[in-house]
Automatic annotation (TrEMBL):
Its main location: membrane. The chain crosses the membrane at residues 58-75, 81-102, 122-152, 158-180, 192-210, 256-278. It is found in: Cell inner membrane; Cell membrane. This is Transport permease protein.
Length: 289
């Protein structure tokens, strides 16, 4: 009795044996579809629609300004405090939305994950893109306000904005891959993510200045504080949007670009670790979902 020939599997890919994030470039059309779907359905069925992209950050800014600026009087110690506050808020909002959505991306797309094979990294990457699109209305408000008060940034400061965005998006994607994979098997990972998102605002110089930390903390604690990728990203936004609107006597952190470079390196490490963990768990996604 002759043996049956082995099936030809050259057209198939076993989950976890691909090139990870690099495979996403071969699925650019599907990535565009996922991003487009996420953008169009974000406020589907709501009365205000895309106006919520302006209302939500405006309400958040108002609360922070009233509490930190008016009640606690931080606006007296920081010149142009509204711009200082909002330029930090938009950075944290981008990180929180990108990280939070990427963490839930695999579970939210369980129907596709269980039925067909495609690079699972498509889902968290698409959610990071969607978060960036929703960040643009907030950035436009910041730009308009800065232009009204005479904003005149340098080329180096504008380059800092691009570096800050890279730091935030890469860090959010890396952590999203890490916790998104864990969230499939251990749903309480989502609770840990919510704690991280809660602390992200308070562990970065958004509601206060980094000089306040430097004044009360030992030098090594301050250095650890500045090594936080979100801290350097927020300070780069302050340098680009807030500092040019002041009288140029405002203090900027020393070695900001050094800390920004280290923050970028830390974000890349997060991405590598997140990808490795994601690939380790990827083969169990369909089973655990």
């Amino acid at each position: 009795m002759s043996e049956r020939p082995a099936p030809d599997l050259t057209g198939f890919t076993v989950p976890g044996t691909g090139r990870g994030i690099l495979d996403v470039f071969s699925y650019r059309y599907l990535l565009r579809l996922l991003v487009r779907k996420g953008i169009l359905t974000r406020y589907h069925g709501t009365a205000l629609g895309w106006a919520w992209s302006y209302v939500k950050p405006a309400a958040q800014f108002l609360i922070y300004f009233l509490v930190m600026g008016v009640i606690l009087r931080f606006n007296r110690g920081i010149e142009m405090f509204p711009i200082y506050l909002f330029s930090g808020v938009v950075v944290i909002n981008l990180f929180n939305e990108a990280f939070g959505n990427a963490t839930r991306s695999i579970v939210n797309n369980r129907a596709l994950v269980k039925k067909i094979y495609l690079p699972r990294e498509l889902f968290p990457i698409a959610d990071v893109f969607i978060a960036f699109v929703h960040f643009l209305p907030q950035l436009s408000i910041l730009l308009i306000v800065c232009l009204i008060v005479g904003w005149a940034p340098t080329a180096v400061q504008l380059a800092g904005v691009l570096l800050a965005l890279l730091i935030v998006l890469i860090a959010a994607l890396g952590l999203g891959l890490l916790f998104g994979a864990m969230n499939v098997s251990f749903r309480d990972a989502q609770n840990l993510v919510e704690l991280i998102l809660m602390f992200s605002t308070w562990t970065s110089p958004v509601l206060y200045s980094s000089e306040m930390v430097r004044a009360i903390a030992p030098p090594w604690v301050y250095d650890l504080y500045m090594l936080n990728p979100l801290t350097s990203a927020v300070e780069l936004f302050h340098s680009a949007f807030w500092f040019p609107t002041t009288d140029q006597t405002a203090a900027r952190p020393e070695n900001l670009w050094l800390f920004a470079g280290l923050g970028f390196a830390a974000a890349l490490i997060m991405l590598v670790v997140g990808q490795l963990v994601f690939r380790k768990f990827e083969g169990r996604f369909a089973q655990d979902l």
